[in-house]
Amino acid sequence: MKRLVILGGGESGVGTAILAKKENFDVFLSDRGLIKEKYKQLLEEHGIAYEEGQHTEDLILNADEVMKSPGIPKKAELIQKLEEKGVSILSEIEFASRYTDAKIIAITGSNGKTTTSSLMYHILKQAGLNVELGGNIGKSFAKSVAENNFDYYVLEVSSFQLDDIKTTFKPFVAILLNITPDHLDQYNYQFDLYAQSKFRITMNQDENDYFIYNLDDPKTMEMIDQITIRSIRKPFTMMDAAQDAYANNELFRVNETNGDFSMNVNELGLIGKHNVSNSLAAAVAAKIINIHNEDLKRSLSDFKSVEHRLEPVLTIGGIDFINDSKATNVNATYFALESMTKSVVWIVGGTDKGNDYNEVLPFVKKKVKAIVCLGVDNQKIVDFFSPYIDTIVETNTMKDCVEQAYKLASKGETVLLSPACASFDLFKGYEDRGDQFKENVRKL
């Protein structure tokens, strides 16, 4: 009996444990922190051995294979020891792929992958296909494979998950939305290494599979010829009208061998130029899967934005409050500011990931009238923006932050929470940050 050790007792770890148990592995799960009660219950129901609050090396280093949760850094001492012993380390998406024949639509990118994955799932579900949504979006792919029998999976995949695929994870359709600097602390601060991780989504594809990518993304286009890609290439663009998948400010179209599709951009359910691009990627995939034009148009029109991603909260006294807490890097905030049409009071701050704010400066100069910092240490933000923005306020609770933003905004303006930083200095995660924002806005 092969021994599978799972490091991390969250959604992906527990899901993998349940699938491995079903497939007759000797399973052991170890989490250095505390495991949530709901996950402990699942482990106990399935009779899976586990430990929390420590990693007992004797019980881990004797594994045949190790599934590590995406949050555990490659540099961790335990991971180094496993590698020295030659133990195969893999991700949940790799392990689960062995046990399903479903067609996989995998979506990666520095920004927009949650929105695009949710939209893709919505399109397939509305068209009546037997489909599930999973991966990085918060539902375990492995657990679903263990318990259900879907024909299609739409998976949001991160670079960390792709780092630990081997030979099995092979999407029928792979979508790479964009590559901008993120998580560079995990890639020796080398942008190329991070970009190569994203391209691993194509690694096991063959000539019967499809690779959808963004012609307008500079890093993707710089790297694409350095990578061996065997699948059928399907680019999309908002710059080159000669391409099959193209959109501008008015027109949205995809020409495929199985028929052409077009609609007006203003009929799309999602707002913002970046979301036109995301919708285009999803539409290309939908045409590959033979979704009927009327179903595709309906789904693209009635899809609403994902929670914590440019999510309209309330309009109070003529001031719009928008929750974009999922913008945990500068590029995500760039897209948020780009899509703003009114004067903005911008809430920014949190745990800095080596941010370079020059990227958003043109939008800040043009659209932002005041900045409210929300973080333990806001010095970098204050120093960078004070030459350009007269009003910068520092706060370290969400209640204070929302009240200050409300005071600074006037009728016809927008209060935008788009922090450009991770949330762990003050919150449990970006969801907690977004939920607290919405709760405090409702109390105004």
UniProtKB/TrEMBL annotation:
<keyword id="KW-0573">Peptidoglycan synthesis</keyword>
<dbReference type="GO" id="GO:0005737">
    <property type="term" value="C:cytoplasm"/>
</dbReference>
<keyword id="KW-0133">Cell shape</keyword>
<dbReference type="InterPro" id="IPR036565">
    <property type="entry name" value="Mur-like_cat_sf"/>
</dbReference>
<keyword id="KW-0132">Cell division</keyword>
<dbReference type="Pfam" id="PF02875">
    <property type="entry name" value="Mur_ligase_C"/>
</dbReference>
<dbReference type="GO" id="GO:0009252">
    <property type="term" value="P:peptidoglycan biosynthetic process"/>
</dbReference>
<keyword id="KW-0131">Cell cycle</keyword>
<dbReference type="GO" id="GO:0008764">
    <property type="term" value="F:UDP-N-acetylmuramoylalanine-D-glutamate ligase activity"/>
</dbReference>
<dbReference type="InterPro" id="IPR013221">
    <property type="entry name" value="Mur_ligase_cen"/>
</dbReference>
<dbReference type="Pfam" id="PF08245">
    <property type="entry name" value="Mur_ligase_M"/>
</dbReference>
<dbReference type="InterPro" id="IPR004101">
    <property type="entry name" value="Mur_ligase_C"/>
</dbReference>
<keyword id="KW-0547">Nucleotide-binding</keyword>
<feature type="domain" description="Mur ligase C-terminal">
    <location>
        <begin position="308"/>
        <end position="421"/>
    </location>
</feature>
<dbReference type="InterPro" id="IPR005762">
    <property type="entry name" value="MurD"/>
</dbReference>
<protein>
    <recommendedName>
        <fullName>UDP-N-acetylmuramoylalanine--D-glutamate ligase</fullName>
        <ecNumber>6.3.2.9</ecNumber>
    </recommendedName>
</protein>
<dbReference type="GO" id="GO:0051301">
    <property type="term" value="P:cell division"/>
</dbReference>
<comment type="similarity">
    <text>Belongs to the MurCDEF family.</text>
</comment>
<dbReference type="GO" id="GO:0008360">
    <property type="term" value="P:regulation of cell shape"/>
</dbReference>
<keyword id="KW-0961">Cell wall biogenesis/degradation</keyword>
<comment type="function">
    <text>Cell wall formation. Catalyzes the addition of glutamate to the nucleotide precursor UDP-N-acetylmuramoyl-L-alanine (UMA).</text>
</comment>
<dbReference type="GO" id="GO:0005524">
    <property type="term" value="F:ATP binding"/>
</dbReference>
<keyword id="KW-0067">ATP-binding</keyword>
<feature type="domain" description="Mur ligase central">
    <location>
        <begin position="107"/>
        <end position="286"/>
    </location>
</feature>
<dbReference type="GO" id="GO:0071555">
    <property type="term" value="P:cell wall organization"/>
</dbReference>
<comment type="pathway">
    <text>Cell wall biogenesis; peptidoglycan biosynthesis.</text>
</comment>
<dbReference type="InterPro" id="IPR036615">
    <property type="entry name" value="Mur_ligase_C_dom_sf"/>
</dbReference>
<feature type="binding site">
    <location>
        <begin position="109"/>
        <end position="115"/>
    </location>
    <ligand>
        <name>ATP</name>
    </ligand>
</feature>
<keyword id="KW-0963">Cytoplasm</keyword>
<keyword id="KW-0436">Ligase</keyword>
<dbReference type="Pfam" id="PF21377">
    <property type="entry name" value="MurD_N"/>
</dbReference>
